[in-house]
Batch of 3 targets.
Target 1
Amino acid sequence: MSAPLVEMRGLSRFYKMASGVVKALDGIDLDIRAGERVILLGPSGSGKTTLLNCISALDTPTAGTYVFDGRVVPRSDAEAMTSFRRQNIGYVFQFFNLLQDLTVLENVLLIQEIAGGRDEARARELLALVGLEAEVDRFPSEISGGQQQRVAIARSIAKSPRLLLGDELTGNLDTATSETVMQVLIDACEAEGITTVMVTHDESLTKFATRVIRLDSGRIVADDAMQA
Amino acid sequence: MSMLLTKRLARSLWRSKLRLFTVILLIMMGVTAGISFGGYAHNVENLYDVIYADDDEGVNLPDAWIILPSGTWSAAEADGLCDAISDGWSEAGSGLDVCEPRLVLDGVMFHVDVEGEEAMISSVWHGTDEGLTDKVWIPDHECCGGRIAGAENEIVIDRHVAKHLEIEIGESVEIGSGHGRLVFEVVGIGFHSNHLWFSPDGSIFPPKEGTFATGYLSAAGLERLAALDEGAANYILIDVQDTPAFDLPDTDEDEGQYEMTPILEYLSGTMVDNGAESAAVRDRGGMPSIELLRADLNGAKKSILPMTIMLTLVAGITIALSLHRLISSQAREIAILRTLGIPSSSILIGYIIAPLVIGAIGVLLGLFFAFLWGVRGMLDVYENIIQIPILTEQVPPELVLEISLLTMLVVFIAGIQPAWKASRLQPLEVLGGEHQIRLGSRWMQRLTARLPATIGLIIRSSLRKPVRLGVTFFAVGLSMLIFGSVIMMNASMAETMIGGLDTTQQWDVTAYTMPGGEAEIVEWAEANGAGHELLIEFPGGYPDDSKVYVALGLDTLTQTDSEAMRLVNLLEGRLPSQGEANPEVLIDEGMASILGWEVGDSQILKFGSEEVEVEVVGISRELMRTITFHRADLAPILGIEATGVYLSVADGTDISGLGDISLTVVVKDDVVEGFTDLMNKQSQMLDLFIFIGIGIAAAVLLNTLLMNLAERDSDLATLRVLGASRRRLGLMLLGEHIAIGLVGGILGAIMAIYGAVAFAKAFSQWAFYFVIEVDPYVASGLVAVVVAISIAITPIGIWRIHRMDLVDMAKGFSS
């Protein structure tokens, strides 16, 4: 068996609030291997998003270790954390967060430029992969929510990340569109060899996962392999 | 309920403190400037009223001056002229109060400095016994003191001179007026109406300190100095009951229709009837010092309103932009309030009250600083440049009321539209997110499609709110207008003055003389190996107009001849030919502009009461209003061969001998140094304008760029989450700010250029006309200032990115 892509041991994230210390993550031990499609499930406040933030190095764990592809993930230097994200992580948000001043194609190109390698042919190829070859010159406000989310997926994989994270990425879409977007995401990530970790409330999406992890009160309460 | 809503709004405003303070600062600056300028104008106007008044404190300023340009009248002639004027006065209209002959002569002061070196200072001496009009003004102030000259060896020294040369009451001074030198005892230090603006005749700029002197002797004292008979005079002062209105040289309104018009016509006629054709009759508008101070005061008064409006307009624009941004960011809250049943009128009132409260705070702070520093600062500059003491200092309540209400009105107007917009927000649209849908600009996309996406993003984000950006550029342009136009006017003035002297006038010294005295000066020149050229400078006029110009007669009219002492800077037309039936002349560009005269015109000129028809063949650039003749054409008209001699002397030549044979001596280097001194004294004022201009430009740009940044928080956070480094985002911001600074700077420089041209036109007048020459260095400097301000604001944006809580921001990206 190959070495885990994500390796967390005893990971905790505590927040000091006026009412006391909130344990958002409390001693998480987690391995995620390359190629897995992981879905994180759990009620509000269970720690799903905090875990996602720690995986992406947006947030700094209070305690524990986190190794990504055999290397310790930086946790105190903001620029090193950004660099880690730039090199390894793709992110898809619920509200798409496309830049409204750029066209669909330019949104993808921008991320390539930030990652240091503009490649328009590949950007067009990725947009074709998510079924948007006809929309490349449109502005985000000129296409539907589902299409915007597909642009966000193309944007996230444009820099060939090792790991793609999604936070409630279908939460703003109707059921049918959610299914389409998820299928596009899975197909694109498989085609590109990208591991995925997604947070959702929607149990019906577990059919797209190879593994479902349930969290509650900052702890993993279930970790089930799924039939792909 | 409204109270709670207002409290909510106040707290929202407080969250954007930096922008709030910026707006208050702008209003404060507008009010401070308005009150300071207004207070300056009020106090200076009061001062002139005190000086010119017909009472124990004032000098009783005459209403008309009859001036014999060369030579003198005997006592009998002068008295005869006064009798003639008095006898026929009923023709003139208003009652005659005083007709008083005076003797005023050019001369020199021989001043020994602390190192024992004797300097020869060109001077004007007045023989002025305690008359009924145009008295010496000795204010009850520490600057001055003593009494007027009574005995024939006593003199009152002008305060300007006493200060520059450190002369005190009780000391002696040695002076001359073409007939050797005599010693006089200083018995007083004071001012004279003809020399409040302390520049020699023929110049509008004060000379270098210590190179020009005036003094006020007894009539007998001056007669003794000039070896003239008792009662000799060359001025007749006319004081009319009340103060009749006179023609202002800087207006074309109602020419020839003032109360003074029939009086001037009567006086001219009386001179002709009594054989004094060459005497010039002038009203207050024709007396350089009086007219310059009036025009300066008028300029200050004229600038109060535009200056205040301009500054408060910038503040108003900033308030409107800030409120729009506030309302956009609070749209959801407003929609919820409306959904909960809060009436739109309550929303409207809150958003109207907010700018009014901000305005009131700005006004109060503005008044505080105006009273604390502003007015006094302006008066300090006046006292430093004009060197007349301000006796009382007050700020009229009506000025305070006017500026405060005007500012509050601008603030109110600025707040109405955003408040109306807030009260009209549709809850369904806002809560449905429709108001946030923003369509990118297609033409902008096409324009930048070939650029890298990063640069395209910078450009498109900058231009996302074109109206806001446009209005910001307009406001920056206004601030550039304030200080850019002042800098440009200064640069143009310096070029006109010093550039003109350096490039077109090759003389070193001009020695002025009474008619016939030029031979002695030429003799001196030849004995001292100095180049020489005769000249005529003579005051001229026009029929039915009080404007006075210099008729200049030169031996050689040339643009290039290196032998000529004075070159002509010909702008249009050709050089005059000599010996035509109607003399051919050049008029200067100020005269052409103000009088509307053109090349090819025939015009009637007036010298004393003599009228002469001339042909205008060209337009030249001159500092003063000047008509240039061939001296050979002008001499027979005036009956004078020369009034002075241009001299070109070798370095180190002792010119003190000229003092004994000349009426007065002007040294070119002293004129240039005098102008440089004046510019240095003005630097305080210039610095103030620069401070105001840059401060406002910085505040306006800061406000807009902060709003841009705030609106882009989400985009920037997204890019950060997706892996964009702070350095890269910082460079993007820097690029954007440089682009905004460049566009704003270029637009600002263009506005400053047009503004300077408009200001120059508005403030140019007969005595002081100049044209704005656009200096590329000054224009690029203005652009550089705006770019620098823009760049200086970038770290604030970088700081915002730096302190961005990505975890918190990312939470907002998903539910």
Target 2
Amino acid sequence: MSKFSLLDHELIPNHEIMDDDELRTVLKHFNVEREQLPKIKVTDPIAQEIDAMPGDVVKITRKSQTAGEALYYRYVME
Amino acid sequence: MVIQMDNMIPSIPKRIGAIKFGLISPREVRKMSVTSIITADTYDDDGYPIDMGLMDLRLGVIDPGLKCKSCGSRAGECPGHFGHIELVAPVIHVGFNKTIRKILRSVCCKCSSLMLEDSKKRDYLEQLSKYKDMGHLPDDVINDVFKEARKPKVCPYCGEAQLDIKFEKPSEYIEDGHKLTPTEIRDRFENISDDDIRVMGMNPDTARPEWMILTVLPVPPVTVRPSITLESGQRSEDDLTHKLVDIIRINQRFQENRDAGAPQLIIEDLWELLQYHVTTYFDNEVSGVPPARHRSGRPLKTLTQRLKGKEGRFRGSLSGKRVNFSARTVVSPDPNLSINEVGVPFEIAKHMTIPVRVISRNLELMKEYVRRGKKVHPGANYVIREDGRRIKVTDINTEELLEKLEPGWTVERQLQDGDIVLFNRQPSLHKMSIMAHRIKVLPGKTFKLNPAVCPPYNADFDGDEMNMHVLQTEESRAEASILMQVQENILSPRFGGPIIGGIHDHISGLFLLTRNENFISKNDALELLRKSELRELPEPAGHLEDGAPYWNGKQIFSQILPKGLYVDFPAQVCFKCDVCKKADCEYDAYVVIEDGELLQGTIDEQSIGAFKGLVLDKVVKEFGAAAGAKFVDDFTRLAIRGVMYTGLSFGISDEDIPRNAKVEIAARLKDAEEEVSKLISAYEAKELEPLPGRTLAETIEMRIMQTLGKARDDTGRIADNQLGLENSAVIMARSGARGSILNLTQMAACVGQQAVRGERIRRGYAGRTLPHFYKGDLAADAHGFVKASYKSGLNPTEYFFHAIGGREGLVDTAVRTSQSGYLQRRLVNALQDLEVQYDRSVRETRGVIVQFKYGEDGIDSTKSDYSKPEAIHRVVRAVTGKEVA
């Protein structure tokens, strides 16, 4: 059975692990700690797909009819 | 406030660090108790509370004059103190039956150890602490623990065989035929080790399982269960006191019997009785327990009943309570009021007040109010002295008050025109259910409101009542007039269009006025525009043969449109032709407004109606809320005069259709019946082709429904062709004022198929709906097809089927409202603390982000054009005249 990527599905928005620099600017912009972000479980299929580890922050780029692209951030937890 | 200073505790803002819930231990109960209660009597012959009785003065005082023996304060100041009852034998606390059962089953009957391997216990403990750190509820883990621990048949520690424990309502535990007494259960729980308790998700310091079996009962202070003195001077005790009396009585009898060495049987009976009384003391609605009743037969309201439900402590006294400065009465329409106004009866205006601080500059005015008193309308009902004392203004003390009145006092003056109040109609489902209005004091006994604000309140005038709340502070009035005034709520955030707008006669009025070329004389034109602030008529549209000038309806309507308004769109009456000719529409169904002048088209629901009105929408968005409100005020007034100018009435003769049309309808229905009988014979001969995914029986039903539905539509069309745009019902239906073409069809041509749950009517007798049909008859008339029209009248069978169909609608609405009400309640409770921050993120109270940008696109739907993100296009078009992509 060939392995497929969840990200290829059209209903799944793009997920990527954020690097520290970007994360810092985002956290500063919203004036929050990582823990105050919405959460995602490490066991979530998409988190496993991109090899996210607890403590990472995942950036989600959603397509939006009204905004074009909407950004969302999730803190990965156990 | 000067007087209270000495014994007032300075208010320091405090933050609640944590709340801990646990079980109360017998030791704690005794520690907080000021006295043991041993006698069931309350007062002695002189009416003085008996020592160590339920009304003991150490429990606090409620009678004025007496002093609390515990804290020395008087009634009102003393918060009350707990007492306790020593129960002769332990009883189970009903609230914990579920937990007791679970623990009993997962704990060894001999050694009381939790029947899990040590390693497993460690795993569970670890999981629990992890869940706690994450702020998750530990319920899942704990349920797992109990599920696993009840499995072993033999205790892994002492090897004792475990017997099945059956729970029987209300509170009996039966182990292999033997009933466990509360004492036995308590003994088992006492022996559970602290470590095991932790695995069960409890904290042994604050909640030991044996505390779920009561040995001592706390007695709430008298302030919790005050007795009331009836008019006859007789005392009437609170339900809780009654219940406690019962408990003490039984407790005493139990003691006496046991001391006297009564037989086991009697002891058991009394024990059960004690259990019953303690159970109903906590909860009088336990299933399987007959509720304890008052002498009158009314069930007692005990602890759980006080807290539970809509009128309970939480929903009834804490989340919501009754308020002052409010009024409620029936509403009725007054189209001459502005939408921002509300008519308030004199009677109400005289009772409701607004506090006004007296300063040197309003001293004379305030004096005048006080002089007028409460009887002459804009007067004053109370004055408040500088020290905070409220004094009622009466005929006797007026002179005295006038002399004393000085800056620093406050006068509670009566409502008068222009005061701002909140107006509300329940159910308050959206923010437009409470809006701020300006008062107009009017004679009569009802609140008056402009019918254009009916849609947001969902009000009509068939007896609806509404509430008014008078704002008491300057800040609240400012806030209300800026945020909550009706004009600020014309546009709904629900769909980005006007929710306030013309209804019924407003629409037919303007429709009649603006359609066709009508000749309006100068007199009539002025009469029509009388209520709007207009000083000049435009150039007349032409002159009659005798030289008299005339105007047309479109010109009249244009007078109330703001200059600089440009819109065009198809009207409600649009026939949706394949190719729209736009401005050249031959039905005058394409509205063109240029520079505030109606050039083309008929004004109807699509222009000014609530929810739809595009002209209104445009006026509000481009000229502001005040202009929008003025437009609504103007067009409602114009419309009412417009509808009176032409006249619009509807009677039974408006449903008349010519004889040949009736014949045609009858023939069409006969055709349909024949078609149906053909279908039936094809079905019976099994020649019918089933639809994909349907059985044959389903297919025939669907085909019959289809055939009859089409027949009804056809008859409607036949009738419709006979009724032109002169017919009032057609005018109302086409312009969107009221009713639909279907309503008209049913009145004039054929009512059609009655349905229950979307199917033809089938219920009734076996195989038939009514006894005079053959069994298995599938014909149209046997299953609720009504051939008659409402005008011609239904025959008894049709009438009966119609009643069945009508009833379903009623039941549906009743069910739907209650269901959607609960859904809404849950949604509101879940979302009420979310807030859009200044950076446009949505956060909850802890600052945790829910959305990074409101709605993920940051669009305020109120300002969008019907929820489409195209407002920017409109603005660019207006400024540059060019389209943007």
Target 3
Amino acid sequence: MNSKYRLGIDAGGTFTDFVLAEQAGGSRLYKTLSTPADPTLAIRNGLALIAEDLDVALEEIIPNCDLCINGTTVGLNALIQHKGARTGLICTAGHEDSIEIRNGHKEDGYRYDAEYPPAVMLVPRNLRKGVRERVLSNGTVRTPMEEEDVRAACRDFIEEGIETIAISFVWSVLHPDHERRAAEIVREMMPDALVTIGSELYPQVREYTRTSTAITNAYLAPILKNYVTAVDAYFRSLGARAPVRYFQSNGGLATGDVVADRSVYAINSGPASAPRAGLHVTEPFDEKNVIIVDMGGTSFDITLTYEGVTNLNKNIDFLRYRIGVPMIQVETLGAGGGSIGWIDDMGLLQMGPQSAGSDPGPACYGRGGVEPTTTDVNLVLGYLNPDGLVGGRLPLDKTNAENAIRGRIAEPLGLSLEKAAYGMFTIVNANMVNGIRRVSIERGYDPRDFVLVCAGGATGAHITAIAREMGIDRIIVPKLASGLCAFGQIISDVKYNHMATCPVRLDNEEAYERVNALFRQIEQEGREHLHKDGFADDRIRITRSLEMRYVGQVHECTVDVETFDIDAQTVEQLKDAFHRRHKQLYTYSEPKNTVEVVNIESTLYGIVDKPSDARLSSGGGADSALKGTRMAIFSREGEHTRTPIYDGRKLGAGDRIEGPAIIEEVTTTIVVEPGWTAELHESGSYVISAKR
Amino acid sequence: MEQIVKKQKQASGSGVDPITLSVVRGILETTQREMTLSLEKTARSSVFNLAHDYSTALFNATPEMILQGQDIPIHLGSLIPAMKVVSAYFGDDIHEGDLILHNDPAYGGSHAIDTCMYKPVFYKGELVYWTVCKGHLTDIGGPVPAGYNPDAKEIYAECLRIPPVKIWDRGKPRNDVLNLLLTNMRARRDQEGDFNALIGACQVGERNLIRMLDKYGKEQVDTCIEELLVMAERQMRTLIRSVPDGTYEGTAVLEDAGHGFGDFDITAKVTIKEDNCHIEISSPPQVPYFINSYEGNSYSGVYLGLMMFAQLPPPYNEGLYRCVSVNMGPKGTLCNAKEPAPHMNCTTTPMETLTDAVRLAFEKAMPSKVAASWGHANGLNIAGWDRRHDEEYVTMVLATIISGAGATPQQDGWHACGPECCFGALTSGDVELLEHSYPIVIHRYSLMTDSGGAGLYRGGSGTAWEVEPLDGDMTFIMFGEGRRIPALGAAGAESEMAETKVGRLELKRDGKVETIRNNTIGVIKPGETVTNMNPGGGGYGDPRKRPVEKVAADIRLGLVSLEGARRDYGVVIEDEKSLKVDLEATRKLRAA
């Protein structure tokens, strides 16, 4: 049976997005409210919506999908709210506190105030159990493991009701036997507990990073396991042909068993697909420098791609927890459609980071929300259609929005409703601009060298204002903006990172063979995994990288290489690549000095066919899409401007619209401010340019 | 709203395009960060690459500091006087392709193991900027490995002194000079690698600055830089103006850590007049012991006390100090030392006491901003022979100086992020990376029960670091203070159980444990260990008012013992297992 569709489901803080792509080209986008208490409920609701729209039973649609893909925030939410499972740590005696000492470091320069407390410990000190054992830096055992210590720890854990356990010993990466034996004991004494083994999850040198990564993984594992079990079972019941794929923070797909086991790979999966989608929509315009901003209901995510390459982070602090495994670099702010406006102690107007979420949601949703939010502001400014969002499926109550802004903001500050609303709009934009500044200017990129890509349902109302503030003069808004991350997921490949540690000096044949053998081993494991997933060898792509340094250095620099065996000749290639990289990064190299390898990594991709792109037919001018006018506010003074409203569905390729104007797509609203021009491109994206 | 509008107006008041201003600021900060990153990633010395004991700064041609990164506060501002001295020393004799090395405190340096590299940046034939970095080498020659010699009576008995010297002349390395310097240092390969790292960092900075000039033009960039200096000045002036006019005095005690001259007082007198601030330091005459501070280093101590109080947001540049004048007291005193005073310990002792004095003075001016002191540094250097590679090793172990932070009027102190002079900027280095670099095994790196100062809000816990050499003798050299007097509490916080809150060293040999409190040099063998214990931070407020459930929680976490609960907090625990509080006994004890 040839499959007709591919389905992507991206859960966000407020909305869950569904993209149903036809293999022949063309995508449909659906949205439902997220249901954080039971995330699978939103999936069921969304699928019901699709079935209703296509007028086909779900049991006909799902078996017709070659792949169903899901990006989930359950791990992220649990980590933000510290609502992970009760976790225990088994570690080397004497090193119980390394995750609380955190390398003795305070992240934030000279700051030390009440709003900046120490990081919350995922495993409190009394649940970190030291075991007498010790491996030395050369991999030999100094002290054999006292198994009784492990058993004593388990007895305490049982008493404390611990359900998930991280095991992480010093130098386990060179001698994993102690961790493995400890895991056996734990499994024997606590058969229902989940176990994370440091040297298996993140086999790289650095005890603090490995332990912290293992703890975070253990903390989230039960939550992700429950989640994927429920989702997998549901899709099986609908007749899914292949297991559901989950999106990972490294920018690739994985199966449910992998995500449950390596849950730390899933913590920031939602926005990690944005760069892939961003490059896809900017491809027709030959843009390789892309800033993608995604404003959903709760948060604002920014990713930056420079010359086609998106930064991966390794060994970074994420939500203040040190995470070793690779993740796409994402800057996240609490600035979304649901962000609440409030007045602080000094009488200053603030927006967020608190969010009204999806329940009760913004005041205008009429579900009992009384706080004024960004969505209420956009409604009062005339940007959003009072008849409702999502094609009227989500009706809006303008009176509620006005009352909330008037009561909570305008009256206390002595401002008119309009001025208060525009002030809130300005502040939420300033927050977003500062976030973009952090990923661009603060990292040495001039934002004016980039094109801004709009993703997320709520971004369209702000996009020209943000670009104006940043000095960016070109914006791409895909019609699918609102589901761009879900779209990014369905055009992504399966991706697994396989790592190993291998500290050898590159000056002898034995060392070459050790590195070669280790690469072969981890790649063989990776291949077997992908074979089981149904990828034949011709659908597997492998890239390698080595972390190398000069002898005596402690930090490595990562060198990407082709897959070749290292021998007396090719080693020169490898060393040259390292010298070049070192010189490129640090202005000098030391070609006479010995080079050593520390860690190696192979990234294995299972190549997934991409659905075809649809092309829009030419339009007959924007006038035919004009559906009326609305009063809207574009200035601090708050005066009303009569603004034309266009129905995005009726626009064709080449149609141009001069600002001020508002374009209503089904799942997003685009505000074209005065001074900007929008043109719909045949690839299905609006190109919005500043008038020069 | 009004405020936002005002802010926007301010930014555009200078006539600088606000976007370009932000971009230039961002590029400067990125430049500095990349220099820092380059140092961290390439250096051989674990004091650089693991512990972040370095700093980088950018100067204009004046030379005026246009950006200091948020690196280690010990170095805060100390590059300002050093850069001026170095630039004046060479005068007109500064050329494209020169690189200048310097460490000497008599030429504006801090302590001589902190070695500075200065690169003049030329654009179209004109000197436009300096990229500068400074880092703590593992050795700088002299009689004792790692530079800290508690027996030195003069600076000549401490280390190799390097006045400003060109190691590159017009793009050409002066190999004879480099060889002279390196020949005088232990673990030569590491020192050479670290010189390369310093040079690389300066070049990374130069590369970014030139790219910026190519893109935005010198004139526009200069306007932006001046605006950034003015913005920093305005911030500091606004803050100073908010302090009531008057003169405020703070005195802190520098304890005798083994020199036998007794405890010393260091006093700071802060005079506020409108938006200007004058700080006058008085300290005892210099002593023949390594705790004298030359003027450059003392500037860092004073500026850190000021900045801990000010809590201003970045960027940090010389504009901050345009309204601040400092008098370090007469030449020949502890905080304004002159040759031949020995000085190696000065970046921690007496600097932290000097910082405390300045901060105490400001707290008198604005009691609402009072906070407790952080634990002072007392740590170890280690040295020996590494048989794995048949070479000498020597390093300062920064993991050993990680102390507890002070409590504030709102919260408990952070654990393990001191010492005061580093304010959390230091990192201890991963245990595996340390064991990879040196032939040692680290048996313990942990928080310490009862080490945080007692208070309504508790001070953060200090740390213990236990080490054993693996294959031969290891020399350990102690430095610092804070082994008798715990970190100062605030708002009436005092610890009854003081003995667990101070620094000390435990030497385990032949089944016996010896506690050492004076700065000492010793040798241990495989099978023997030393444990360096660092002080916790000071508490805030009356410990007897700390809620009993918080004390109980601390007991459960092992941060406070049953004895500590009783003595420090007046909380009596009924039974060790359930940790049930005996409320009646507690009430009685707390009332007593």
